[in-house]
Amino acid sequence: MPIETVDGRRGLFAHEEFASASSPTAILFKHAGMSPTRDLSKHQRVNDILLGPLERLALEWLAVHTPNCVSPDVYTAIGVIGALWILISYALSRFAPEFLWLASLGFVINWLGDSMDGTLARYRQIERPLYGFFVDHTSDAFNEAMMMLGLGLTPYIRFDLACLALSVYLLLSVLVFVHTCVSGEFKISYCKVGPTEVRIAAILLNTAMYFGGIQVIAVSFGPIGRLTFSPYDLVLVAIVLILFTSFVVTAILESIRLAKANESSRDDRGAR
What we know:
Layout: E1 3-5, H1 24-31, E2 44-46, H2 52-65, H3 72-92, H4 99-124, H5 129-152, H6 159-183, E3 185-187, H7 195-212, E4 217-220, E5 226-229, H8 231-271
Helix pairs in contact: 1-8, 2-4, 3-4, 3-5, 4-5, 4-7, 5-6, 6-8
């Protein structure tokens, strides 16, 4: 499993209580198999994705060949531009389906900016852990909102379902941040799937919507009324259910692990 030290664009400032090795929190983390630290560079980043080997090669090449005038902040801005590009392209797909191809290009632009800011900072050794962590993840949240809301503005996907997908994606983002706080491990991939695979899935969905065209299915539910949806809505709902299940299972397993670690730390303190 590829495990890297956290790059300069991501980091986390551990609580002061971690400074004492004998504190209850430190004992708890020890029994949980964790090693919390105030040194941001020692937090680990886990990105074990299907396309990891290819992506890392591409990012390394781009970092080496990036002009000196381009900074990590420029790449962050490129990622935001990519998200806004997606939003506008999706909205314009109401008038012409060809804009779906521009939306797919926007996902590539967003990938470039989102992936290269940290890579470039690490390559040039110009890390700014606290600043990087804050800027990276606030911009990520903004980008996710723009992309999902844009998807809901197309004539292919219901707006309420796009908002549901955004809610679940943000739930997973919160899970990643909280997991980093309690474990010192910044894990952005689950079941070999990470942000890169999600972008590719979005591009494939755009392709299907372009060639499949607007399709509407109407089903009557008696007193509830008539429900209309598209096949693309069903695909999105399936993805949402998978992501939500991943969130629930991971949250439960992590809660169980931390509860056991907490009991062990109490036993240790009682023995002393």
